[in-house]
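Good morning C.,

I know you're traveling, so I'll keep this short. The sequence:
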Amino acid sequence: MNILIIGGGKIAYFLAKAFFAKGYEVTIINRKKEECTILARQLKATIVFGDATNPQVLKDAQTSTMDAVLAITPNDEDNLVICQLARLNFGVEKTLAFVNDPDNEQVFQQLGVTIAFSTTRMISNLIEQRTGFEDIVNLFSIAEGKVNITEVVLTKDSPVLGKSLMETNLPENCLIACILRGNQPVIPRGATSLCCSDHLVLITMPQNHGQVLKMLTGSNI
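The tokens, ready to paste straight into the viewer:
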């Protein structure tokens, strides 16, 4: 797979290393000549010096041969322009963009960016969940935010302790996919009982996420 990264710094460096570890070919476009020199010394990637909002620079980087383009510059507007150029001018189907303003995620997707993700929103969610509710130890979204995956720890105050899965009456569009009991994973069935200290791997939709967490923990989310 051929990956084009637009941006620099440690993020570009470590992303490139991660892609190399998977056997991918990586090209990096960076508008700072000094950073290009450093990246060229540190990585086996193809390094292109220039402004990726310029179609000629994208052409020089052979963007039309890329399987995916990842725009990670500090400027949301530049990332959007780069992704749109890659898709419309060079036929790249997979475009991914960092956004600093979480409000831009949906806008970017409406304008054709395959995936737009805000580190601000991700960190905010993580801090909120970890500081607000000790029995909710992890939360992240997949499928462009349409599905939540949460790890919930059942405490002695949980209203579902001792109940079987079928007795919990969880709403539709949610699933307890796995239970971590001690060091052993358990694939639950309807008759599986829920015990104190169980770690539940929970899959929900955003619209029923809070309702399901309240049913399992008794806390208002």
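Safe travels,
E.
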